[in-house]
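Q: What would this chain look like folded?
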Amino acid sequence: MDTFDLAADWRRSFHRQGLRDFDALWGLPHDWVETPNQRRGGWSGVSRLRLEDAQGRPRTLFVKRQQHQARRSAQTGWRARPTYFHEYLFLKRFQALGAPVVDWLCYAERDQEALLVTLAPAGYIDLPALAGQLDAPRFAEAMAAVVEALGMLHRHRWQHGSCYPAHILVHPATLSVRLLDLERCRRHRTGAAAAREDLRQLTRRCDFLTPELMARMAQAVRRHLPSFDPALLALS
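A: My prediction, written as structure tokens:
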């Protein structure tokens, strides 16, 4: 299925650089952020692109490319579609809900190839880097902001699904949050179940979280999801 969807407020910026179609974006230099992931006969990789926005400010974009990487879900009628297509749908859905996700700028798909372009949030860093910058009280505030950001998904019964420390960005000064890598989102029967799975995933990979802070995070979840049981995470 051939698809090319470009955010209206970025159309002029893309066209100015000759990025008008799938081939132009697919042919960008392979300046990979990290070694592309190879699995199941396909691959996916992320590169950076510098582009001026509508106000002429230079911005960093992430260009995510993949080939032969697909999954099925109810939202596509169980037809196999690229995993980036799923992420594109979730970004649009969660933006409509007001959840703090990264901005999508372009999605394009051709045969077994797909690409997704997102805006890199200026000044934001991931959780491991944040833990190394902030003192304990300020970091506790940051994690409260993270719980609130994830809660905007959980209250609608959505699980992030890839709730890893590198997939949550926080601005050290403002403590505002941006969520990324949402292609594995799934919906649960309850918001408490969605929250439980995300917090389990996150806390298992955050060796910088103290038991006291994890307990506070769990109690914060319970304030907006009363049926959530912190004991299920062994956090309290």
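The chain has two domains: 3-119, 125-233.
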